[in-house]
Amino acid sequence: MNEIFLEGFKRSLSRVEPPEDFSAQEKALWFAGRGNWEKAHLIVQDLNDPLSYHIHAFLHRQEGDHSNASYWYHKAGVKMPDISLDREWEEIVSNLNINK
Questions:
Q1: Which of 27, 35, 86, 87 ranks highest by number of CB atoms within 10 Å?
Q2: What are the residue boundaries of the structural domains of the chain, listed by start?
Q3: Under 8 Å between Cβ of 73 and 79
Q4: How far out from the chain centre does Cα 29 lie?
Q5: Can you list the alpha helix ranges (DSSP code H) found in the chain?
Q6: DSSP letter assigned to residue 48
Q7: pLDDT digit string, tens, across residues 84-96
Q8: What DSSP string describes 87-98?
Q9: Cβ distance 76 to 25 under 8 Å?
Q10: Residue 53 Cα distances to 20, 40, 43, angstroms
Q11: What distance in Å separates the CA atoms of residue 50 and residue 78, rounded to the nearest whole number?
Q12: What is the distance between the alpha carbons of residues 99 and 54, in angstroms, rounded to a whole number?
C-alpha cells in the first residue's frame, strides 16, 4: 500500500470539492471518503472498466446490499473482501496510484 499517496488523498478530503485533476474513479472514492454514497454511486454506475466495477461493488457493500455487491465484485474480477470497509477503501485508493 502506498502510504504517501493514501495520506495525500485523505488530506484532499478536507476540501469542499474534489481536485479538478481527479479521474472519475478518484472523484467517486473521494465522495465515498466524505460519506456521500449517492454522489459516489452516481459517478461510477455508468463506467465500464474493472476499477469502476470494483468501486461500484465496494459502494454496494458499504450500502449493505451484499447480493448487488457480489455481482459487481464478480464483474470486477475481485473476490469480496473480508476486511473492514475503511480498509477496503484505503486499498482501492492506494491502488489508484499504481494505475497512474
A1: 27
A2: 32-100
A3: yes
A4: 4
A5: 3-12, 24-33, 37-44, 50-63, 66-76, 85-98
A6: -
A7: 999 999 999 998 8
A8: HHHHHHHHHHHH
A9: no
A10: 22, 12, 11
A11: 9
A12: 14
The residue type of 43 is I
Burial category of 31 from C-beta neighbours within 10 Å (exposed 0-12, middle 13-18, buried 19 and up): buried
CA distance linking residue 31 with residue 37, whole number of Å: 7
- pLDDT of 15: 95
Copy the grid coordinates of residue 94: 492506494
Q: Which three cell numbers stand for residue 62?
A: 458499504
Q: List the grid coordinates of 21.
A: 485533476
pTM higher than 0.85 for the full model?
A: yes
CB 55 within 8 Å of CB 92: yes
Whose cell is 457493500? That residue is: 61
Chain centroid offset of residue 76 CA: 12
User: Angle 85-98/50-63 helices, nearest 10 degrees?
Assistant: 170
CA gap 78, 81 in Å, rounded: 8
